Amino acid sequence: MTQQTRIRNQINIALQTAFTSTLELWIRPTSLVILSVVLKCIKRLVLTIFSVIGILSLALDSQRFSDSGKKVLDIARLIPTIYPIIFAAVAGRFYKNLARWQLEHPQGVRVGNLEQVFGSQSLAASFERLLFVRAHIPLGIIIFALWSLSPLGGQAGSRVLYFGENSIETAGSVYYLHPSYQVSRTRSPTWIPQFQGNIDSLYSASLISSPAQKKLAHDLWDLPRIPQWRTARQPEHGKWYKINNDTIEYVSLLGIIVQGLTLGHNLADLSSWENEKVAPSIQYLSRGAPESIGGRFSCDVEAIVLETEMTCKPSPNTPGCVASRRRIDNPEAENHLLDGIFGQSLLLRDRLLNWRDAAGINFLNRASPTDAYLSSEDMPYGMQSRVNWTRINSTRGIDAKAISRRMTTSFNTFCRPYKRLVLSLPEKLEGASTSDPNLPPFLNSTDATATITNKVYLANRAWVTVLIITTLILELLAVLGFALRFMIRGPDILGFASSLTRENPYTPLAAGGTGLDGPDRARELIDMRVQLVDVRPKDEIGYIAIRQVRDIAHGDSNEGSSESDVAEINVTWQPLPKGRLFV
Asked: Please, which residues have CB within 8 angstroms of residue 173's CB and are 6 or more apart in sequence?
């Protein structure tokens, strides 16, 4: 039987079974059509969700935490996994439909362009076609650029929404106890015995605190301390200086009371005033070692008015306020700031005597806690030996400047309780007034700025833009691919191995003829065995083709046509030899 006769017989068999095959094709793919429609709907829905996530991220920008925001964030974190899958499905289908449409175009299509379009089914494949086929470089660059949107859109999805903080500033007023404006308990000698116990307790408690606590920016009651100003510096009046709370000493070991602005869990910057006081012309006497040697220190008057800016962060686990920066204000302070301390000599004498005894019992052969503190001892209550004050200014002795700084701290710590025998104020200051407006405490007020800091969702607008743009481009590819599908008339033969059997004289024609799509042809020829061989073994130059292989195991030589009767095709062939030339 000649080759033409075999082909004619195959065509006749296909025509005889055309009616039956048509019925089978209409009945059998119904479920596949439904599945295809469902998958298309899912892809459209997912694409819509991508755009909605971007829009919702913008809507959640600067919003506090919520259950709905958490759901949006959880979905956004899945986008890097889902986006490349959906992109590959949509873009791959578009390029395949574009290749099929070009193949049916009246003017045809160049094989190079067809290979470049149809072969670009992934990012790697598009780069491979651009690099090796090089049929149409601009077209290849465009295809590769479109495929590059897949990882870009996926990464954008995970970055559109994140956690952050949002701050809102509000103005208000705070109140604080100004130490120079409070009524001194030493104005009347009868007051001293009444309050001496409280004074001694506050002074000794501050002095006995640990070395680490003495260096903190707050006292034992979490009240902010005011740092000392180093008088050796020549500051610019009105210029703010930042405070390093790790390397400073404080005006007093007792802090000041700051109250008034309701902060909750917010942040506020407030300004407060504080006086650094060193008593004018007072003398401090100390018994040193040996016993015949004593210490006598003469201190000159100096009043420094500091404006200190504080940052308050109320929290159950952290102190309220910390000094952040300061400046010198009113350098020529009037002496009335010190009148409350040095106004009456007799009261001053009594106060200094009380200072000597405020730290507790003094042993004759031991340094008093105040002496020990002035000599830079970290633990003043350690029962140290008497201080040898002759070592002052020696290379390995006691620094006079350090004594001056510690005396400032000690004296202010002792004087402060005379001015402040309370550690807190009423929560509502407006309700603290009495029938007599002249009764203490007298409060100063200052402006404050409360910064309300909340944990919120923040949208990255740049990544939201990238996500929306890439999704819109993907939507466009989906619409174009869907439109091209209705413009295609022929079967889908691109990309299927079963298409190699179409119009092949060495394989039988499947039921349904040449009009079958690739998937339908594959199902028709599902059991047919094929082989790549040389079908002209006796010629000088061979010819490579795919042939049908007899299924010896089942004893069937007519595979691949389902239940159709296909004539057996006998082909002279040989396996592909090495070194042979082929047409």
From this structure: 260, 261, 445, 446, 447, 448
Straight-line distance from the first to the last Cα atom of the chain, in angstroms, rounded to the nearest whole number: 24
Distance in angstroms (rounded) separating the CA atoms of residues 384 and 328: 38
Q: Please name the residue that has the structure tokens 């149809």.
A: 118
**Among 353, 399, 396, residue whose Cα is nearest residue 374:** 399
Contacts of 219 (CB under 8 A, 6+ apart): 206, 225, 253, 254, 255
The C-alpha atoms of residue 502 and residue 514 are separated, in whole angstroms, by 6
Tokens 């009105």 — which residue? 238
Residues 517-547: pLDDT tens digits? 767 777 777 777 888 888 888 888 888 887 8
Q: Is 61 left (phi over 0), alpha (psi -120 to 50) or beta?
A: beta
CA distances from 232 to 154, 237, 248, 406 (A): 62, 14, 14, 16
The DSSP symbol for 561 reads: S
pLDDT in tens, 438-496: 445 566 777 777 777 778 889 999 999 999 999 999 999 988 988 888 888 777 767 76
CB-neighbour burial class of residue 559 (10 A; exposed 0-12, middle 13-18, buried 19+) = buried
**Helix, strand or coil for residue 283?**
strand
Give which of 415, 388, 185 is closest to 282, Cα–Cα: 415
Give the length of the chain.
Answer: 583
Looking only at the bridges linking them, the beta strands covering 267-278 and 302-312 are antiparallel
**Cis ω on the peptide bond leading into residue 441 (within 30° of 0)?**
yes
Letter for the amino acid at 239?
A: K
- Contact call for residues 104 and 490 (beta carbons, < 8 A): yes
Instruction: Write the pLDDT tens digit of every residue in 401-426.
Output: 888 888 888 888 887 665 555 545 55
Q: Has this prediction a pTM greater than 0.85?
A: no
- pLDDT bracket for residue 330 (50, 70, 90): low
- Give the pair of three-digit tokens for residue 400: 């006079």
pLDDT at 34 over 80: no
DSSP codes joined into one string, 225-237: PPBPP-TTS-PPT
Q: Considering only CA atoms, which of 7, 1, 30, 23 is closest in space to residue 566?
A: 7
DSSP characters for 392-411?
BTSTTSB-HHHHHHHHHHHH
Classify burial at 1, counting beta carbons within 10 Å of its beta carbon; exposed 0-12, middle 13-18, buried 19 or more: exposed
Closest CA to 73 of 544, 455, 580, 436: 455
